[in-house]
Amino acid sequence: MSDDTPKPDYSELLSSPYDPEPDYSEGDSAIPWRPPVIAAILGALAVATFTVYAIVTGPASEQEADETVSTVVVASAPEKSDGLPPGYTPIAQDVGVRVEAVTTSPRATTFAVSSAVAGSADPSEVSPVDVAYWEIEGVGGVVPMVRQYGGAAAIPGDPRHGASGISTSPTGNLTVEFPPDVTLTDARLLAYVADGVIERSKSIELPADTASEVTDVRIDMGAGTVVVIESLIVGDGWGHVTWRVDGGATARLDAIVSFVGTSGSVVEHPHGTLPLEGPFTYRGSDRLANWESASSENTLAPAIVVEFRVAVPERVSDPIVLELPAEG
Amino acid sequence: MSEAALNTRAVSLTVVAFLLGAFAAGGIGVRVIREVSTADAATSLPRSATSTTAATSRFYQVDPNETLISSTALVPSSIEVTGDGLAIAYDLVSLAPRQSVAFPNSESVVFEEDMSAVYPRRWVIDTPRGSIEGGPANVNARVARFDVVDGFSMDEVESIRIVEALSPYSVEVPVTLSDADPIAEVVPGVTIKLLNVSDQGSSTIVQVAIDIEDPEVADFFVSGDGPGWRSSVLEAEGGRRVTLTWTAGPLPAEIPLLATGSVWIPLVGPFDVSLEGVR
């Protein structure tokens, strides 16, 4: 081997970018390293920045993070409901009720309860709500209702609105009264629905030409329930009945007045009620509609017969809980 | 080497160096991301891999475009825009049970479907130009009317709401009147006043006036409470006055009366009206 073998020139590779700038003008072939190095650093910084950003922010959304999770919302055409309208609690076959409002006054705490039938039912073929009695259950304990009434209401301006002030148009709306001092905090309304009714009737004959009064007429409804006619007063063209139920039950009462000994008869009912279709209650004080306008034939009748038709619940359901409406 | 060749070589090296730096950092970055993802997955709930389909069903009682207000369905039937007026006609369909009632010795009473069990009193139409308030003329009307600007179009309507709806409930209030205390409040907005007491043979005639602030939302009648009263007649003239006849001897100083009627109570709303039903 000869020492004349040309040795490789590593000076270019061994040079540093920080070495003094060579003078290329003199034909030197050295490469400018500074720009590539800076570019490599910049590239690394750019990707590192993106990496940090990706870690900190995470995926843009869950949907992007996992494409297998997907929910497709399909709006179907409206369907006819077979059930009750929203907010109504089932209380009987095809019937539900809802508390619409609660008002308080020095006289009473009053619940406004509406009723509606299920979409599968024909309202004209469904009987009105038949609640035996109501209670309020709350922090103050259980308080029984004072009375319930309604189902029909006067309609201002309605041609069916008669001189009595009470239309026979039923609204399905019931008024349920409780004592004025009842506590409503965390309270619930309990409905006890009548399951079947027991009906009895009793007739009382009175002279038609003189005012007379009958008291303490008892109608035994069975199971310890007795409807007591406290007072039946028949005057000159008018009558009035006061009654109650003994035994803790409720009842509804209809009175039919007939004139005996005439060719015709007149039928009357307690004032302002729908006979035997009104709500059950604990007691009543009802005026028998006046019959002074009846024919002279009736006024000459020797006797008046008052027939009482009474109905009491045969059984009552377990309590059905109704929530009170939010104050609004 | 020429200066041009040197510049070309320098540019190429710069690009290659940039990419190398990026790839190197990217490799490290991917590994870091995987580490973080693995740690997250270990502490997160597992993701479901199933695809779900949710169907939104809407149910109606009598009509797809109904608005349920208490136990009544309000169903828009037509709309008319004429100049500066907008009229929305509607039907009220009661869902209340109304099986006919059989009165003794008389024909059954068949109740009507379109009962005034709800009074949609005040409506609001929202548009980009503002809200327009309107409503029916009275409880028996079945058209809600609105005053609109000329050129109004239903396309401007964003929403229609019933902001005041009422429903009637029976009210019975025993009250007493006397010479010393001749006025009594039945319910807020309703008072009765003793007008006159006069003898007529063996009977006593009592005249009472009923004052109702808003006759649209309350209606009352007064009768005698308890035995002794024969009749109560609403006078046809002279405002809302009732003449009662007492036939049981001397009239009590505290005259027992019973105010019976109905009060239209406000229902909790508002109630949205279907735009499809009126377009």
Describe the structure.
The complex is a heterodimer of chains A (328) and B (279). The radius of gyration of chain A is 45 Å and the shape is elongated. Helix content of chain A is 11%, strand content 43%. In chain A, strands 6, 7, 10, 14, 16 and 17 form a six-stranded antiparallel sheet that branches. A five-stranded antiparallel sheet of chain A has the order 3-4-5-9-8, with no helix packed on it. Chain A has 328 residues and is mainly beta. The longest helix of chain A is centred in the N-terminal third of the chain and has 24 residues, at 34-57. Chain A has helices at residues 11-14, 34-57, 62-65, 296-299; strands at 70-75, 79-80, 89-92, 95-104, 109-117, 131-138, 141-144, 147-152, 170-178, 188-207, 212-222, 225-234, 239-246, 252-260, 283-288, 303-316, 320-323. Chain B has one helix at residues 3-43; strands spanning 51-56, 59-60, 67-69, 72-82, 85-94, 119-127, 130-135, 143-147, 159-177, 183-187, 190-200, 203-212, 218-224, 229-234, 241-246, 255-266, 271-273. Chain B contains one helix and 17 strands. In chain B, 15% of the residues lie in helices and 47% in strands. The radius of gyration of chain B is 37 Å and the shape is elongated. Chain B has 279 residues and is mainly beta. In chain B, strands 3, 4, 5, 6, 7, 8, 9, 13, 16 and 17 form a ten-stranded antiparallel sheet that branches. In chain B, strands 10-11-12-15-14 form a five-stranded antiparallel sheet, with no helix packed on it. At the A-B interface, helix 2, strand 1, strand 2, strand 4 and strand 5 of A face helix 1, strand 1, strand 2, strand 9 and strand 13 of B. Strand 2 of chain A pairs parallel with strand 2 (59-60) of chain B, so a sheet runs across the interface.
